[in-house]
Design brief:
It is a single chain. By secondary structure, this protein is mostly helical. It has one domain (1-33). The chain has 1 helix and no strands. The longest helix has 24 residues, at 6-29.
């Protein structure tokens, strides 16, 4: 894998993980019906 692409891929993975965490947090904060 070219080193030039590695940081971008890692950044995308981090961003995706953060977005997923936000979604999980929203679900957990919702009052359970």
């Amino acid at each position: 894998m070219p080193l030039g692409r590695l940081p971008g891929v890692r950044l995308k993975k981090i961003v995706a993980a953060l977005e997923l965490d936000k979604l999980i947090l929203k679900e957990n904060l919702k009052p359970k019906a």
